[in-house]
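Help! Submission page says 'invalid entity' but I think these are all valid:
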Amino acid sequence: MAPTTAPMQIAHREEILTLDLPYCEQLAVGRTTFGSGGPRVAIVSGIHGDEVEGLYACHRLARWLTELCRTRPEALLGTVELYPGLNPLGLDTLQRWVPIFDVDLNRTFPGDDTGILPQRIAAAAMAYLEGTGMVIDIHASNIYLREIPQVRINQDFAERLVPLARNMNLDVIWVHGAVTVLETTLAHSLNARGIPCLVVEMGVGMRLTPSFTEQLIVGILGLWQELGVLDRSVVIPRPDHIPLLADDTNVHYLNAETSGLFVPGVEHWRAVYAGQVLGSIVSAHDGETLSQIRSPVDGVLFTLREYPLVYEGSLMARIVATDTVPRGTA
Amino acid sequence: MMATSALLRMTAPMRRDFEIPYHDLGDPDQPPKVALVAGLHGDEINGVFVLSRLANFLGGVDLGQRPTQKLLGRIVIIPAVNVLGLNTRSRTWPFDKTDINRMFPGYDGGETSQRIAHAVLQVTRDARYRIDLHSSNRDFEECPQVRLYEPGPRERSTAFLFGLPAVVERPSTSLFTVTIGHAWQKLGGENFVIQAGRAGSLHLPYCERLFRSLVAFLRRTGTLEGVELSEEDEDSYYFGTEQAVRLVSDYAGIFVSNLEPGRWLQAGDIIGYVYHGFDGHIHGEIRTPVAGLLTGLRRQPLLCQGDLVGRIHTP
């Protein structure tokens, strides 16, 4: 007789913070938990209210975990916590910052449980994530730039995090310099407390890129298996992306020389060569091309502007210099 | 010789090219003695108004229209850095919503707001005294005060030359490291942030007070001679970082207060009441637990649980 799964509650939903709003409503920040005991891992998304890629990743993971718990509950050896929207007011009103306060939630960590609303959200998240073995904080760039799936790591934590990120099935690992202001992010606050946190950036604000999500999920499941959250016998897709390693020495920024309408001339995540035309800035008032953008190096275009209007200085593209075309992108 | 210059000229995607102008008063061959900046946030109007009026006054002095008064040092005045933000009533740089006062020290090859920050720093870098004027946000009103972040002894003493009611020392935070105040600190000299009023509104009594305080500062630092200083302003008090008490509401609802910032309070005095938004009953009253100067007061009536309603500085 085949083992039966009781009609139990597979996922446990709870609110990690509630706060009264001025008129009749409450702000509530929620999390969903699968399993209990064993190694604890967490996914955080929706810190910025205009970034929704992570919400979809949470949905896909929740669906996968629900199916696993229905069919092979014994294979979930640890606890998975999903925090799909840390900034629910921002998400529900399409605002990047925390509405009312116009505060970037990701500049308020580790927070203050007696402070204003954003500080209390940050403090609640930190309290609930305490003791977690691995946190992945999923971001989706902003409305201006499209990013290839990548992990961003502060150089202060690179030694511990880069090996974890290598198996995430993403295309770029970007180790960036330590900047004091970034000490107020969720990732820095967790890493500084010894809780490993990887920041994933992928896609573009206000949009979903389901193929990126599927790519990321393969990496997340593999990482969870490595960490003992999933039993080794669980079959998960093989990673098929090998990351390029980027840092401050090989990432090149292309900022607009003049203002106008940026029209890309190449596809995102393509190998480019030094001198290649990547796009143009044109005038909407007449037929003039105001500027041509050329690649300064041989490399791969891993950031490409999505929103076409540019001011002088607006970022249009980022290129990681390479000697060879990256593998795993076909 | 009075001159209007541009610290930055830039193209725009669809509008005309634009510039960020500033006043350059006094001997152009000397490095600036005093640099005054306002309008880093486009919705903070008090500072813009005060600096434009000050430029008007000092311009007259510079042109010899006030024979008894004389400029003894060069003064740079930027009434508004975030020009487009001011014209579109936006706190941040409107195009990409970046806060210009989180972009310092800036970078001339970087994003637009980094370029603006870089240009502001270039124009003000050689000044001995640098002053950045702000209002609070749209929800909160601050009484006129000088703010110091990790000051040296000279700044602590010079801050009293403004004659404002409060000199407040604030803790430096990670966020402060990307502000103009921090960028100035790295350059040396003496640097001050002045707060007065509330974003989105013009508070005339505060503006008059600020105008007098800046004129007094210029005279007391030997930058301007021949002006009579008013004796009517009250004493200044110095408050260290441990002397600030934040008043936070445990209730959500509608906050009502009839107090004015700048008032001295006794312990137990009522700051205001919180009414339930739906049925109108009084949720609770907010009292100050300490005696002190009410340096800031909430002006936005809609209140979330945990919101700041006031700030008291204890003597």
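Support: the input was valid. A stray whitespace character was the problem, and the output above is from the cleaned input. Chain A has two domains: 11-245, 250-321.
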